[in-house]
Structures are given as structure tokens and as C-alpha cells.
Request: fold
Amino acid sequence: MKDVEITLTVNGEKKKVRVSPKESLLHVLRDKLHYISVKANCYRGECGICTVLMNGFPVKSCQVLAVETDDADIVTVEGLSKNGEPSLIQKAFIEKFGFQCGFCTPAFILAGHYIVENMPDATDEEIKEVLNGIVCRCTGYKQIIDAIKLALQWKKEGKS
Amino acid sequence: MTYKYVGKSVPRIDKDKVLGGAEFAFDFEIPGMLWAKLVGSPYPHARIVSIDYSEALRVPGVVRVFTGDDFPFKVGLYAADRDVLARGKTLYYGQPVAGIVAETLQAAEEAAEKIVIEYEPLPYSLSVEESLSPDAPIIHEEMSKYKHAVFIYPKPGTNIAHHTKVRKGNAEKVLKDADVVVEKTYRLPLLTHYYLEPWTGVARVRSEGTVEVWSSHQSPFAVRELLSKSLNIPMHKLVVHHLYTGGGFGGKAGLLLEHIPILFSMKLGGRPVKLRLTARENFFFMAQRAGYVLKMKTGATKDGRIIAHWGEYYLDAGAYADYTVNMARAIGLTATGPYEIPNVHVDSYAVYTNKVPTTAFRGFTMQELHTAFESQIDELAHELGVDPVEFRAKNLFVPGKSLTAIGERLKEDAGDPLTPVLEVNKILSNVGIGPRKDKPWVIRSKGIAAFWKGPFQPSSAASSAIVKVNEDGSVDILVGTGEMGQGTITALTQIVAEELGIPPKKIRVSPHRQTDMVPYTWQTVGSRGLFSESMSLLMACEDLKEQIKEAASIAFTVNKDMIEVRDGKACVVGEPWHCIPIEKLAIGYMNEKGVTVGGPLIGRGYYVPPRNVLTDPETGQVMEEGHLAPFYTFGAGGVEVEINLLTGEIKVITAATVLDTPEVNPGLAEGQVIGGAVMGINIALREEIKYDVRREFKGIYPDGMLLNPCLTGYIVARAGDIPKKFEWKFLGVKQKDAPYGAKGIAELTMIPWPAAIANAIYNAIGVRITDLPLSPERVIAEIKKQKPELLEKAMEYLRINLKGGDNEH
Ligand code: FES
Ligand code: FES
Reply:
């Protein structure tokens, strides 16, 4: 099998990359395009901290083959702030102390962003269900959940 | 007295973690960097007969293959027992035997598959009991040649890496007179910290000879000390860089791997080398939490006084005990928890086994000790027929009066051991004990545990700090402590903001450290970081204020003591119209005629624990009046749980934490309380590194393998697992010589949970479980053993319930 060229959009920018058939999206984003906010730990779909948004949905980038992302739209934490202004979910994580060591934080921010954009009436249980795929060893999750709830509330109040 | 910044939820300053751009060793790269990969042993104990790496060298991009013979020396600090790569024999399954360095990670990985190593298996031990048996294989045959710290007592010719003795009164005799004696053995498995950033290090040697390393660690100066001693590199030629660290929990404090990329780089002309572990490799190459076998005999009289305690505490150290030897000391010297007991006889040991090397985990043996000891306390109370809370109240330390197990008299203002217990009890007062109405096979219950802890450190453990005022009046703080998520750097800006009266947003402390650029601190462990660095900073701020006053007094031609510093200004006392903002003094004060007085403002401070003393090697008693630690934090934890008798599942509904100290930043403190509780509860219920100790899977798995090196086998808590409700409270009891009265909390929040849950199980069904984790299988097995009738009753309930048919499910 030969390397192929794919085109994907990352944080609004079009990128052309040559990838091997076995290569993961994680590898492309971190090692080829240097989006270092995309972290990794297990490389086998267990920890979830390599999560990015692909066409609007959270995916574990270590489990997505790069060749599947031709034409895909990818968002990483680097792409969330607009003109230097942090997004609602980022502000809420700061306000609610939703992070400690920060290694898992990009993944949770993106999952939180997904909830804020798509699940306006999410209950605690529904939030937890989305977050269950991502491990945080520091926070005990409560302040992460509080942050997401605050962002949901802000969004309802029309704050941006 | 209320403060402007201290005690407030000032937002974290490490916002780049949220906004993107936060840099970890994991992310760090240098142009021209090579990649290293390690090959692990497939045997727990085996002679290395031959290593053939000719094929590996043929893989394109491979630069070099290293084996143990390339590094004929040991590394270590407390007990220098580690090979860089196995020499002669391997001591555990997974031990690094060879290392490959290549231009790319892929090439290194490919080459790793091509190394052929021939082994001759040796008998091996997977438990403390096996290692101590008379025909045990000796794991470190050359122990007598190892260098070790003066307070470490190895026993060459055995598998005992260290032995601590504590002797106070005459416990053995007094136990005979006790009205009740509780005798139990507690077994705690090895654990992994599962910090999310797997260990990573990048090293290079500069052409003029300076060795540099960027790595994932807790304490840059401790890394430098270990490397300098082990590799014989003078400290000024060794620069350790600390970036953000992706979690540590004690796992990045002791046995680390910096020496590997450094040594590889040294042999490759100084070229940068990166070693980045995967989560799976992290299980094998990094140290995990030690296992424990804790034997205890504790006696009390009818009137509810504990009169004697006897213990044998064994730490399963795995193959390397460089850090675990000191943990064996810690658990021995704090042998009785927060209780005053006049007669104590304890021996604690670190024992080598053919398992992964070990270290501490958030609490430096104190969760483990309290897991056992707080169960003993509850058992004694039940035996005596008294309320466990009252029983604790009667025996807890009384600061100013009590003598600890090592004869240390606690200071008057040492804290409040009792109120946290009463408060937790109050929080849980509405929780009833008994079967749920809708599902009678589910029993609701509650349990509590008290705890204490101070940083276990050498009596000389120092720290220092520098505060600099910039030309625009903003402030830089320089400290040596590591930031691994606990939020110390944010809290330090609050302290300096308060002292100088300037807003935290004008103050910065870099999350990065470089040992040649920041002042010394011993380590970032033992919940001491915020305490020690704040004490140093208070002194540095005083020093700075003196300099400001000096310059301002010349400017205003008044006496120095007529100047006060507040709100970022130097003012003449009583003349608020006579002020100079500190930016005008930052690099010296220049008058109208151009004459400059003073110079750049740099405050310097340090902290060394006052009157910390050593203990006697034969009795463990303090050598003269003094202390083991500069502070002790006291607290209690309590749980409301549900026990499902049909499945054995334990669910924690409420977790309550009360600590005696004030909080510097409630938002950060909440993070520690919740994070510690979730981690501690999960350790109680689910966590365990598994080995085939009983050889049940012989022939199915490789001999002596760590069986669950992944998140499907080793269960960490997920968002859906956390308790419904958290309650917490800080009592605000101040210690005089503490920064704003506050003591450390980071480890404390994790201590009480296994004991509290075990006590809740006992309260509900009268079954005492002494081993962790409290997994469904273990709970069911123990009920079967201790109270089989309960299972029948539960089945009966279920039958009735199913017949009823209309109950909610
Ligand atoms: S790295 Fe763990 S799920 Fe992708
Ligand atoms: S903040 Fe450290 S793992 Fe989540």
C-alpha cells in the first residue's frame, strides 16, 4: 500500500498532507502539523485524551485513520478562540477551575464545546455520558461538569 | 482579619492549558533529536545468556543499540540499587534490558522487534511472604556493596532492603493486660498512579560539557541531586528543566528515568535524545505504588483507652526500593495514626520481590496506614460496645499534650484532630443504616475515618524564593517548586499580591523551572510545596519591603521606619499624599537632579523547618525535643454508601471531607478535595495491579508478568463513577508559623476513603474486609465467609420482590 495525499481542514485552514495507510489522525495532527494541544496516552482508544472534533463530533484521533479524514473538518483547542477571544467553554473552564495538570484539558474542552453547541438542555447524567470516554486523573470531574453547565447557562443567557 | 486576595477563588494563572499552547515534556523537541526505545525482559528473574542486536542495527535509521554492559554502575539516592539496563540478570518482567536510539521513533520501534535475547529463567518471588521464606531466591545478591543513606538499614543476604524499629513503652507486655485486643492483617495491592502524561525526557550534552534534560517530574532539584550523585556530574554542569507536568501524585518524585536519555546522549556525542513512554510502557519502566502487608495488634481497656499497639508493616518494594526504603521509615515512624498510645512496638520493612519497582502515591504511605489503622479503631470500638466517634474523641492526639509514637510532643497550635471527626459525623447524621425499602437487598450505610499527615522530609529540607520588581511595577516570582496541576503557582501569586498590595494579575510566576535560574527547593512532595515556598516568599517580601523603605526614606528624607508599603506604593506614615509607586523604585530611585539611590529591587527569602530532628535507629524516638515535620494537617472523611448484597457492588452516594486548616484559594482547594476523594474512593473499590501470585495462570500468561497494564484491565474512575454528592469544610484553624495559618492539603484529601468505606460495610452487615480493593467479588466472598446467611436473605428478598412484580427497578 502506498502513501496518499489527503486534504483536511484544521481550525478553518486547509492542509494537504501525505500519509501512510496505517497512520492515525493523531499522528498527522501532532507530529506532522504540530497541533500540540492534541495529547496522547494509550494510543489504543482507552483514555480519550486525544479527542478532537471531526465534522463537529468528538472522536478519539488515535483511532481514526488519517486516510478517512480526507475532506474532513477538524477542530482542536487551538481553533476555539476567535480573534484572541476565548470561547464560552474555555471561559467557563477558567471560571470553575475545571482543570489541574492540564494534560486532559484539551479533550474535555472539545467534548464540552460539543455539548454546549448540540445539547442545550443536557442533564448531569447526559453530560457524564459524553465525558465517560475521557479520563482525567486530577480533577475528579466535578469542576469539569460544573464548567460545562456554566457554559450551557451562559449560552442560554445569550452571553458570548 | 480578612484579606484582599488570600482566601479568595482567584482564577488559575496557567490558563494556557485551556487556551492552547501549554508545553509539557511530552511535547518538547529539539532539532536533530534522536528517539530512544527500550526493550523489556520477558522473565521476572533470569540470567541474561546472550544479546544479539546485529539485525536491529541493520534497520535504516538506527544509530546505536545499548545494553547493560555499556553502563557498569548503579543509580539511586536512598539505596542505590538500580541498573540502567539489566546487567547479568533481570529482576522483573518488563525490566529494560536493551535500548535503541534511532533517527525516528518508527525505526527505533522496528529495531526493538529484532533484538534477540537468550535468557535462563531463575526462581522468582511475587510476594512479601515468598521473599521472606527461608528458601527465597535472593534478588539483590550484591546488596552489601550498594551505597545507601545513613538512615537506611539493609540486610544483605536477604530480600530486606530496609528495616525501621519503633519502641515506646512495653507494648508486648501491656497487650496482655488489655481488655480487648484486635488483631488483623491488611493487604493492599500495588497500584499505578495513572497520571495522564506518560513519563518523557529529552536530554542533550552541550559542546562545552553542560548536560541538559527536559523531563516530566515533580521536583527539579531532586532530579538534579539524584543525577549528579549517580552519574558523577557536578551540579553546575547539569541543568534540569521543568515544563508543565501532566500529573505526578508521587509517581514522578522518586525513581525516574532521566539518566537513560542523558547516558545515551553522552555516548552519542551529545546529540539530543528523547525517550517518551506509552501508557503501557509506563506500567513497566516507571515505579508504581508499593504493595502492603500490615499486621496489627491493638489493645484497649474497658474505659475506652487504647493502651498498646504492636505492628509488623511490610512494603512490597518490587525489584528496586530506592524510594520505598524511605516509605518503610515513614509508615513506621507514624505507626499509630493520629492517636496517642503509650506503648508501641512496630517494625517496618521494605522487601524486594520480582515485580515492578515501586514508590509512593499521594500520601507517602499515609493512605495505606490509615486504611488499616482506622479499621482497627472501628473494630476496637465495636468490641468495646462504644460509639466509634466517642472512642476516637477519647484517644485522638491533644496538641500541646500528646506524645506521638516517636515521642514527639505536638505543638499547641499543631491543629485540631477532633473537630473534623465531629463535623463529618454531623454532615452524615441524617443517613440511616439499613435496607432500602424498594430494594431490601441493597443496604444503606455510613462510615468515617480520621487522619493526619505532615511532610516526611529530611530535617534539613529547605526552600528559597526570589521576588523581583520590574520597571513597570509588575512582579516576577522565582521559586523551585514544580507545577503538576495542584495550582501552587496561582496560590503563590495570591500571597505576594497580599503582601505587596498589588493585584495578582500584575504578578507572574513561570510554570517552567530551570535549576540554574531559580532558587533551590528540596522537593515538591508531601503537600509541602505551597507551605514551604510561601514561607520563603513571606521572607522575600519582607526583604523587598525593607529595600523599598530604604529607597523611599531617602527620596522623602525621612527615617526608614516612617515609611510603609501598601497598595503597591511606599508612603510616609500618616501622610498619604507623600507616596511613590513601586515602579519608580524598581531599578533605583532617581531624583529631579538625576541622582539615583538604591538599585534594582530583589527580595530573597528562605525556609528551613525549625527544630526538625532525627530519630534514634534502635527505638525510632526523636533524638531530642523537636519535630518530624514543620506542620501536620488533621482531618476526617466520611461516606454514605449502598451495598448490594446480590452483586457485591458498593456505591458511594456522598463523600464528606473536613480539614482543620484554612484554605488559601477555595477554587483550588475544592479541586484537591474532589480530586482526592474520587481517586481515593476508586482506589478503595477498583484499583489493583495484578500478578499471578498463586501461579493459577501458569502457562496461560508469561511467568511473573504484570497482568493488567492498560485501562481495560486497570480501572480508573470515569465521570459516571463519581459520588452524587460531595460535602467539604475547612475549619480555618491556624498554625502560627504557617503562611496565613495554612497547611498543606493535596495528599490529605485522598487518605480516609478505603477505611471509611470498609467501616461503612461493617456498620451495615457486620462483615470486616481487610484487603483492597473492595471489589464485588471480594465483597461477595467475604460475606460468604463471614455472614453467609445474609446472601440467602438477600435472595429471598429478591424472590419476594420479583413475585410482587410492580416494584420500581
Ligand atoms: S491516546 Fe488514548 S484514546 Fe487515543
Ligand atoms: S487535569 Fe490532570 S488529568 Fe485532567
